[in-house]
Specification:
53% of the residues lie in helices and 12% in strands. By secondary structure, it is an alpha+beta fold. It has two domains: 179 residues, Beta-Lactamase (2-Layer Sandwich), CATH 3.30.450; 55 residues, Orthogonal Bundle (Arc Repressor Mutant, subunit A), CATH 1.10.10.10.
């Protein structure tokens, strides 16, 4: 009983703290500080489970640690979402689950994914599907155990679930407020980023849009500046995430 009250207190204190925060990344950092003592070290918040062909890294709702960003790159480069049993489970899951509960197929790429996870040091993890008003999974949070998997007690799991749901809701509300103020791209800038997402070069875009390569580069640079991106790839990812372009 005393343990339950203690973790209830932790959950309520967390909720009070994040209500005062005004940045999605700060909310994720607060969650990390709160849950790391229990062995939950790396966290991710995603807008939804990606559909086939969609990139997981475009669904990120809060900034990743360098280590998690590195893993996402490996995951995307290997196109592991196509064979990941955890992703399949998330598409239908109603309740949170531990990753150890999910069996891997004998498929060679699924076995390869399991090995890569192990090599990266991910012992296991927890995933929490969170549903929107439509009844479908609206967004997803997960936590990764690094090294030895901790023996989480029932009270610790419940605290993690409560904190995750509150953190994800706060992140989504902050994201919605940011989206209401998102930069406006011109039609031409959207066209350039859309063709860039399709893998076209500046010369090819110029031929398609009937403008010079130099003009294409100017539109691309202006889009980068409006989106606060450091390169064209990041600009495309931001534009897709914020639904400024569709692919």
């Amino acid at each position: 009983m005393a343990e339950g009250l203690e973790y209830g207190r932790i959950s309520f204190e967390f909720a009070e703290e994040v209500d005062r925060l005004s940045d999605a990344d700060e909310v994720a950092n607060s969650m990390r500080r709160t849950m790391t003592p229990f062995g939950l070290e790396l966290f991710g918040f995603f807008a939804r489970v990606p559909s086939p062909g969609e990139r997981l890294d475009t669904m990120v709702l809060a900034r990743q640690t360098p280590e998690m960003a590195e893993w996402l790159k490996i995951y995307e480069d290997g196109r592991y979402a196509e064979v990941d049993p955890i992703m399949r489970r998330l598409r239908h899951a109603v309740m949170p689950f531990e990753h150890d509960e999910v069996p891997y197929d004998a498929d060679s790429r699924a076995v390869e994914l399991k090995q890569r996870r192990g090599d990266f040091g991910f012992a296991s993890g927890l995933s929490v599907p969170i549903f929107g008003s439509s009844g479908r999974t609206g967004y997803v949070s997960y936590a990764i155990f690094k090294g030895l998997k901790p023996d989480l007690r029932a009270h610790e799991r419940r605290a993690f679930y409560l904190i995750t749901i509150y953190a994800a809701d706060r992140i989504c509300r902050l994201r919605a407020a940011q989206s209401a103020q998102k930069p406006v791209l011109t039609n031409r800038q959207r066209e350039v980023l859309t063709w860039a997402a399709a893998g076209k070069s500046a010369w090819e875009m110029g031929e398609i849009l009937n403008i010079s390569t130099r003009t294409v580069e100017e539109h691309a640079q202006q889009a980068l500046e409006r989106l606060g991106a450091v390169n064209r790839t990041q600009a495309v990812a931001i534009a897709i995430r914020d639904r400024l372009i569709a692919i």
